[in-house]
Amino acid sequence: MNIKEQEDLLMKVEKAKEQIAKLRKQQADLEREKTELEELKNREDEWYRGKKECAESLQKAIAVLESQDADLNRMIVLVRNTRESFSAILDQIHAVKEDRWTPGTLREDLSKSLFVIQKARNELSAARGRIPALEGKRARLVGGGAEPPVAEAGWGVKDMTAGDLVRIGFWLALPAALMVIVVMVVFSML
């Protein structure tokens, strides 16, 4: 091979190397673009999944809050009406003037007065069943709002005082303590 052919061959090899480098760069660019497109597709899928999840969760939460709002509004109306009823009965109690009772009207005045007292007791008893605050149970604050009162079917730990818990713990631990004492006495006899 002569020098001219060798130079041509070297030129072709150089051009081929440049072409290969160019193709590798294009391949790397295409791979990067493919990765970016896949990432974009994954993020788009994540958006649609998140959109669906959040929309469903928010719709359920709105329904719960609407129900909660309705319950709270009913409780507000109940409390307001009960307070007005109590105020009216209290006015009736204060309106009774015992010093104006006469021997001739004593029986009738006492009957009317006792009727007012019985009405007050009935109203108070009925209201205690409907409004937990009248039983000494306070609505707990949750996230800045009041948690609605819930009628509970029995005692919960949240209703117990520390003294109640200590007494319960004592009575629960007592059988085990007695068993330990009995076992110790038996072993000491052996």
Short overview:
This protein is mostly helical and 190 residues long.
Q: Could you explain how this protein is built, in words?
A:
By secondary structure, the chain is mostly helical. It has 2 domains: 3-149; 160-190. The chain contains 3 helices and 2 strands, in the order H-H-E-E-H. The protein has a two-stranded antiparallel ribbon with strand order 1-2. Helix 1 (3-95) runs antiparallel to helix 2. The longest helix is centred in the first third of the chain and has 93 residues, at 3-95.
Key terms:
190 residues, 2% strand, mainly alpha, two-stranded antiparallel ribbon, 2 domains
Q: Which strand order spans the largest sheet, edge to edge or round the barrel?
A: 1-2
Largest sheet: 2 strands, antiparallel
Form type: elongated
* Total count of helical runs of at least 4 residues: 3
Overall tally of domains: 2
Task: Find the structural class using helix and strand composition.
Answer: mainly alpha
Order of helices and strands: HHEEH
Q: Give the total of beta strands.
A: 2
End-to-end gap: 113 Å
SS strand fraction: under 5%
Radius of gyration: 42 Å
Task: Give the % helix.
Answer: over 70%
Low-confidence stretches: 141-155
Q: What is the typical, i.e. mean, pLDDT?
A: 84
Secondary structure elements and pairings:
Layout lengths: L2 H93 L10 H25 L10 E2 L2 E2 L15 H28 L1
Antiparallel strand pairs: 1-2
